Amino acid sequence: TYQGFRKRSLGVVQFDTTKNRFLAAGDDFSIKFWDMDSVQLLTSIDADGGLPASPRIRFNKDGCLLAVSTNDNGIKILATSDGIRLLRTFENLAYDASRTSENSKNGDVRSLADVKPRITEESNDKSKVWKLTELSEPNQCRSLRLPENLRATKISRLIFTNSGNAILALASNAIHLLWKWQRTERNSSGKATASVAPQLWQPPSGIMMTNDVTDSNPEEAVPCFALSKNDSYVMSASGGKISLFNMMTFKTMATFMPPPPAATFLAFHPQDNNIIAIGMDDSSIQIYNVRVDEVKSKLKGHSKRITGLAFSHALNVLVSSGADSQLCVWSSDGWEKQKNRFLQIPTGRTPTAQSDTRVQFHQDQIHFLVVHETQLAIFETTKLECVKQWVPRESSAPITHATFSCDSQLVYACFLDATVCVFSAANLKLRCRINPSAYLPAGVSSSNVHPLVIAAHPQEPNEFALGLSDGGVHVFEPLESEGKWGVPPPVDNGSTSSMPATPPVGGSGSDQAQR
C-alpha cells in the first residue's frame, strides 16, 4: 500500500510502472513517483503546470519516456537522460527528412523515400569502421572497490540480492560479507551502483554468517551458496554442513547434511523455496525438502563432482554440469534423466583438474549459457545442442567465470589475466574489453590478482561486479555519457535475432581473433 495520495482523489488514478521498479501515478494535478520497494513517496512533479486533476500517463517500454495528458487536450513528454538521448536521435532523423522535403520544393527531385537508403548507407559506412571498445584507463568506466574491514583471502562466490540494493559474497575462509546501499541524495533509488560507496553491513549483535568447516580445510573446499527469492535467507556451505542463515539477523536457522559427501553447488527450486537441488562432491545430486528435512530424490549420472545447477520453470527441467565436463537434463516432475552430453573441449586444450563447468539459463528459459575455462557456449535445452560457441585463442588466459546480464542481452566474462570481456549474447561476439589497468590500482600486478567470480545486477543490464583473488569486490558501470559497454559488432546477415538457430563452426575464425 503506497502512501502519498490525497485522501479522496479527484478522479480515476491511472498508474504505470517501469522495468527498473519505479511506480508513477497521475494524482492531484501532478505525477507522483515511488520506488516500488518503498511505500513512501519518492517525489512528485507538476510538469510545469497545465495538468488535469488526474492526468493520464504511460511509460515507453524502456521507462525513459513518460507521456502525460494535459488540460488543453495535449500531451507532454517527460524524459530521463536516456530518454533525452533517444529523442535527439529521432530529431536528427526528422531534420534529415525535413531537409530532403525542402530540397524537393526547391526543384530537387529527391523524395522522402530517398532518406532511408541514405541512412542505411551511413550505417553501412559505420559498420566498416567498427572497432572493439577497449578500456584501459580508470576514467573510461565507473568502477568502485567496495569497503572492507576484514581481510578475506579470496572471494569464492558473489551475487547481487534480488532487490538490487546489496551484494553478498562468500570468501574462501567460509565468512559471508554483505554490502548494502542506502538511499541518499546522490543515490535516490538506493540500488547498488559504482557511483556511491555502500556500507559493509553487520547486525547490531556483531555476529557473522560463518559456514561450518568441521573436519575440512575451507581453503580447499568448494564453497557454494543460494539466495531465496525474497532475499530473506541464504543457504551456504564451505565443505562442511549446509547452513541456512537469516539475512537480517545473520543467525543460523538450521544446519543439515554433514559430509561426506560435501555439497558443491546449491539451487532453489523456482516454484518452491522449500525444495533445493544440492550438487555433491561424490557426483550425485540430492533433491532436498528443507521443511520436512528429507531427501526426496537422488540423481546419478555424473562421474565427478557437480559444478553447476540451473532450473527452467518454463520447461520443468533441471540442467546439471560436472567437473567431468558433462551436461545432463533432468525432468523436475519425476526427476528422471532426459538427456546428457559431454562438452567438446577444443583441440590442443587440456583443462585443469579443478576446471568447473557452470550453467545458467537465458531469460527465454529455453537456451542456457555454459561456461568452461576453454569456452563459452549457448545450448538449446530440449535437444541439448550447442547453437553458439566462443573459444579464446590458444595463447589467451583461461576463462574463470561468466554470466548473462539481467536481460540476457550481454554475457560478461572474466579471465585469469584479470581481463573482463563483454559479449553480445545473441551471437557471442566480443563488443568491449576492460583491461586490468582500468580497475586494478597502479603497482598491483594482474599476475597476482585476478577475478574468480562475476555477478550481474538483477535490474541494471550494464552493471556487474567482480570478486577478486585478493578478497576485493569491484562494481562496474559504463560512464553515464556512454550508457552501455561498447557497440555491438555488425551482424553478418543484417539481423539481430534473439538466439541463433544454426550451430557454429567450432570456435574458429573471427571469434578467436577477437581475443
Overall pLDDT confidence: 86
Q: What is the helical fraction, as a range of percent?
A: under 10%
> What characterizes the major β-sheet?
5 strands, mixed
Derived from helix and strand composition plus strand pairing, the structural class reads mainly beta
Beta fraction: 35-45%
Radius of gyration: 25 Å
Strand adjacency order, main sheet: 8-33-32-31-30
N- and C-termini, Cα separation: 51 Å
Main features:
five-stranded mixed beta sheet; WD repeat; WD40_rpt; four-stranded antiparallel beta sheet; repressor; mainly beta; 515 residues; 3 helices
What does this structure look like?
- The protein has three helices and 36 strands.
- It has helices at 81-105, 115-128, 509-513, and strands at 15-17, 22-27, 30-35, 43-45, 57-59, 65-69, 75-79, 133-135, 142-145, 155-160, 166-171, 176-180, 199-200, 224-227, 233-237, 242-246, 252-256, 263-268, 275-280, 285-289, 294-299, 306-312, 317-322, 326-331, 337-342, 358-361, 367-372, 375-380, 385-390, 399-404, 410-415, 420-424, 429-434, 451-456, 464-468, 473-477.
Give a brief outline of the structure.
By secondary structure, the protein is mainly beta. 9% of the residues lie in helices and 36% in strands.
